[in-house]
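Notes on consecutive records. When two proteins share a document, each keeps its own sequence and its own token line. Never mix them. Below: protein one.
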Amino acid sequence: MIVLGVMAATDSLARGALAGRDPQMFYIIPLTDILIFAVPLYFAFRTRLDPPAHKRFIYIATIALLTPAIARLPFAFVYRKSPVVALLAESFLLVLVGYDLWSTRRIHRASTRPGVFRSCGHYFPPRCPDRPCPRGRDRHCRVNDQIGQ
């Protein structure tokens, strides 16, 4: 899936973007999503012998796959609205945290680190200098400019 995702993103870059869109900007978005999926998946393979951690890593990798699907739901309140999609995706992480607190009375370490990585990857996406902000997140780009990124 990771290889095919990179190939599909590269193919869309080679074909160019829609009229009025920057192809390089729309290349970084799928690559970021693939990275957000690949990192928890890598750690899931590393923790195969630790079932609770493995399950949590796989769950967080699955949430990364669900984000584009949530954005395409045919409901007016969510269709192509990045803040709403991000909140819905974060709600899956809150379910995981709630399960951890209910089952073990603490948050499992495999839930916190990849959850923070996934959230940071979506709220502060990489951007190219002198290009518009990806996904229409002008407020986040101004924050990145203020901290020197």
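Protein two starts on the next line and is unrelated to protein one.
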Amino acid sequence: MKIRLDFVTNSSSVSYIVTLHKETAERFQKLFLDYDKKTQRSRVYDMLRDNIVEHGETLRQSSGDIHYKLFSFNKARDMKLFEQPAADYDFSSMSEDELLKFIYGEYFFHNRLGEIDGFGIVLLPVKVLKTPASSSAPVPDAVHRGTPT
């Protein structure tokens, strides 16, 4: 049995907790995002805000609600690193699926989400991995216990 207590860099699965302070993000939107066009930041902002508010959890604070959501994905399958500068892409015609892959690669994996005020992101380490005797592939500990990590 192999146990790791640190980040596993060769793992293809990755998880992030993304937070949203809606009031701060809305101020950022009004000041900096161009909503006459569907630009990169405005599409990223809209997709993440809607997803986190609709499908995430809310923590009530005196300074305003903090919305948060766990995003887990497979780097090989669900993430796309673009070969050209982002300015070369037409974000207004990008599909939702392609935009999400872009967000996972450029904003999560490359830790650029902080460029949009009101959002925060934390990479979750793989806490404990166990290698069953019959397999060489690591399996998350939660699978063995049947409980979330």
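For the record: Residues 40-55 form the longest helix (16 residues).
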